[in-house]
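Inverse folding, one chain.
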C-alpha cells in the first residue's frame, strides 16, 4: 500500500477517535498484523478493505485510490 494511503488511513483512525487496537479488533486481526498492513509491509485483503471503507463511510476507491476509478477504467483493465 502506498505511503499516502497509509497516512490517510492513520488520519482517519485519529479523526474517528479510534485506536489502532480497536480497528484491528473490528477487522478481526491481531494488532501486530494490522500494524504491518497499516505501515505498508503487508496488504489488506479485499474483505478487510471493504470493512475499513464501511467503518469510515467511504468507498474502497475513496480509501485506497488517489483519484476515483471509473467504470470504464475498471472494465478496460479487466479485459
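Residues assigned per position:
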Amino acid at each position: 500500500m502506498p505511503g499516502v494511503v497509509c497516512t490517510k488511513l492513520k488520519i482517519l483512525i485519529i479523526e474517528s477517535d479510534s485506536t489502532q487496537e480497536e480497528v484491528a479488533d473490528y477487522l478481526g486481526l491481531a494488532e501486530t498484523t494490522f500494524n504491518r498492513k497499516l505501515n505498508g509491509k503487508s496488504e489488506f485483503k479485499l474483505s478487510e478493505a471493504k470493512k475499513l471503507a464501511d467503518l469510515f463511510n467511504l468507498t474502497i476507491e475513496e480509501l485506497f485510490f488517489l483519484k476515483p476509478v471509473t467504470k470504464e477504467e475498471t472494465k478496460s483493465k479487466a479485459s
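The CA atoms of residues 5 and 65 lie 7 Å apart. DSSP finds six helices and no strands in the chain.
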